[in-house]
Amino acid sequence: MIMRYSNLHTHSIFSDGVGTLRDNVEAALARNMVSLGFSDHSFTACDTSYCMKLEDYADYCREAEALKEEYRDRIPLYIGIECDYFSDIDKSMFDYTIASVHYIIRDGVCYPIDHSPRQQEECIRDAFGGNVLDMARCYFDMITEHALKLRPTFIGHFDVINKFSLMPEDSDAFRDISLASMREIVKACPYFELNTGGIARGWRKNPYPNDYLLEYLRDNGGEVLINGDTHKPENMTFYFDESVELLRRLGFDHVSMLGKDGFYKVNI
Ligand SMILES: [Zn+2]
Ligand SMILES: [Zn+2]
Questions:
Q1: Can you give the residue ranges of every domain in the chain?
Q2: Chain centroid, CA 162 distance in Å
Q3: What is the pLDDT of residues 81-122, one digit of tens each?
Q4: How many angstroms separate the alpha carbon of residue 1 from the centre of ligand 1?
Q5: Which H helix or E strand runs over 70?
Q6: Residue 11 C-alpha to ligand 2 middle, in angstroms?
Q7: In this structure, which residues have their CB less than 5 angstroms from ion ligand 2?
């Protein structure tokens, strides 16, 4: 069976992607995809280098809406936003939302979590006195709070803090911290993306969430959708086949995809 994919985590030149919204649609069509969602970064005042400008939200929605109409007979398009912890958004502007945490702010200093190993090391050292687990606790408290407040359509790259392998990912303590957060979130928001973006950029060998977190979702009413966190249109379905294999190996029998009436299940 050849699986047809959807991708709801896509960045364009409205934020830090390299393609236009249309380039992403064409990439999805070239791959015979079921649907595509746009999800550029929400505005964050602490770092404006990679996100949408506030004044661009309306243009982004207008352009996406026009493409939706133009391509309506070829592929369903959805207008989303990747909403950071430090952003305020009007959810009614979007078809769906992704809750993500990209920064920790301590003593007025903004530390990007997933930009570079050096910046994450600085955060561990300067904001948490070298205690990696304190940083992990802070990050997972933030994603929990963000999810429960925003009530997003799904959770973005849940354990992105593992991107640079600076966390003791397989220790009991780290497991406990991350699983406690997932336990809280899954009750309110069961949808988590499986995100292949860290692999596409050469940082990770496995998607987010990691295997034990995926197993927790499998056993506790969580639902998984496969996303690319695409910053280059040609990476639209990067590592998707392998992700399906991974999910099968872990005992999943379906993934979720977004339709016009919400999520539906697709057998794998
Ligand atoms: Zn993100
Ligand atoms: Zn993203």
A1: 80-267
A2: 14
A3: 999 999 999 999 999 999 999 999 999 999 999 999 999 999
A4: 31
A5: helix 57-70
A6: 6
A7: 82, 229
Residue 3 CA to ligand 2 centre (angstroms): 23
> Sign of the CA dihedral 127, 132, 137, 142?
positive
Instruction: Give the angle subtended at the CA of 118 by the CAs of 114 and 122, to the nearest 5°.
Output: 95
Is residue 37 within 8 Å of 78, Cβ to Cβ? Answer: yes
Q: What's the token pair of residue 266?
A: 């697709």
Tokens representing residue 31 in the block: 């791959």
Contact assessment for residue 198 and residue 157, using Cβ atoms and an 8 Å cutoff: yes
CATH of span 80-267? 3.20.20.140
Distance CA 30, CA 46 (A): 37
Measured in Å, residue 226 CA sits from the centre of ligand 2 at: 13
| Gap from CA of 115 to ligand 1 centroid (Å) | 10
For residue 21, pLDDT over 90 is answered with yes
Reported pTM:
0.97
**What is the structure's pLDDT at 2?**
73
DSSP 12-44: -TTTT-SS-HHHHHHHHHHTT-SEEEE-PBPP-
Cα of 31 vs centre of ligand 1, distance in Å, is 23
Closest listed ligand to the CA of 231: 2
What is the three-class DSSP state of 267? strand
Tell me the CA distances in angstroms from 146 to 43, 82, 83, 227, 254, one per residue in order. Answer: 15, 12, 9, 20, 27
Residues 205/199, Cβ–Cβ less than 8 Å: yes
Ligand 1 centroid to Cα of residue 103, in Å, is: 10
User: 235 alpha carbon to ligand 2 midpoint, in Å?
Assistant: 13
Ligand 1: centre distance to CA 179 (Å)? 20
